[in-house]
Design a protein that fits this description.
It contains 11 helices and 9 strands. The protein is of the alpha+beta class. It has a 6-stranded antiparallel β-sheet.
């Protein structure tokens, strides 16, 4: 069972399904989408960054787009997958954002065990998710985002309640990337240079670039993608001009944002806005 929601104006994608969604990961590779795997009555076997994991029944595991993931076995799973444009394009408290505790704030890959009450709550939420997929109207996207926010809030609360939860990070490539992402989330509107973030992390720009290259990304790419994402959000959800948006994300000259935006989307901010109006 698979259901997919797409939104033209933002390139947002949300997928809900079972273990069928994980079949493309029979060989280890990086997911294109943030992924939640929830087991029900049976366990699941996976490998993340070459480390094998057993997800016990009635548990949730979170995956980001930077980890190498391999699905070995599991059945009766509940799987949610979404891209940054679906969820991260909206403003969220840092703890439940795409740089929050479930994705970038924990030492280990979060695996959350659920009790009977928590299972019932998430079963009900899943039924609402499925029902909303069948409701095709102008606020469907917003409703689906609200439901995903609720799921993430529940998961974050459960993770924080776990005994021995630690919010610090270790100095590994993945954890360095997570910390970098959190810094970008806090400073991207004012700081666009890799050297600023490198100083904060007590690393050289070259060290960051070398580490991130092994994860198929770069520090500058992450900064630019976050700026473009914010510009999209402001174009979609506000009436701000391209010049106002450029200033808000740290550019004194709107042409600089326009070039960056066009490089990532093939459209200028004004053309992107025109497409939004045509689609609405």
């Amino acid at each position: 069972m698979q259901k997919t929601f797409t939104e033209f104006s933002t390139n947002a994608i949300l997928k809900i399904g079972d273990e069928e969604l994980l079949k493309p990961y029979k060989d280890s590779k990086q997911p294109d989408l943030f992924t939640f795997i929830r087991t029900t009555n049976s366990k699941a076997e996976i490998v993340v960054d070459s480390i094998p994991y057993t997800i016990q029944p009635n548990s949730i595991l979170t995956l980001t787009t930077v980890q190498y993931f391999q699905f070995l076995e599991g059945e009766d799973l509940v799987v949610y997958q979404f891209n940054r444009e679906f969820y991260c394009i909206k403003d969220h408290d840092q703890e439940v954002s795409c740089a929050g505790l479930l994705f970038f704030g924990n030492v280990h890959i979060p695996i959350i065990e659920l009790n009977e009450k928590e299972n019932r709550k998430l079963n009900t939420l899943h039924e609402v998710f499925l029902d909303e997929f069948e409701t095709k109207d102008t606020i469907q996207a917003e409703m689906l985002r609200m439901l995903m926010a609720r799921f993430i809030i529940i998961g974050t609360r459960l993770l924080k309640a776990k005994e021995g939860f630690v919010e610090t990070t270790k100095n590994t490539k993945i954890d360095l990337l997570r910390e970098f992402n959190m810094l970008v989330e806090s400073h991207f509107k004012t700081e666009h240079s890799v050297s600023f973030y490198a100083d904060k992390l007590f690393k050289s720009p070259k060290t960051l670039s070398n580490n991130f290259a092994k994860l198929n990304t770069s520090p500058l790419q992450i900064i630019h993608e976050r700026i473009v994402l914010e510009a999209k959000r402001l174009l979609i959800y506000t009436e701000k001009t391209a010049k106002e948006i450029a200033y808000e994300v740290g550019f004194e000259d709107a042409s600089h944002l326009s070039r960056l935006f066009k490089k990532h989307t093939s459209l200028s901010p004004s053309d992107f806005k025109k497409q939004l109006k045509k689609a609405s």
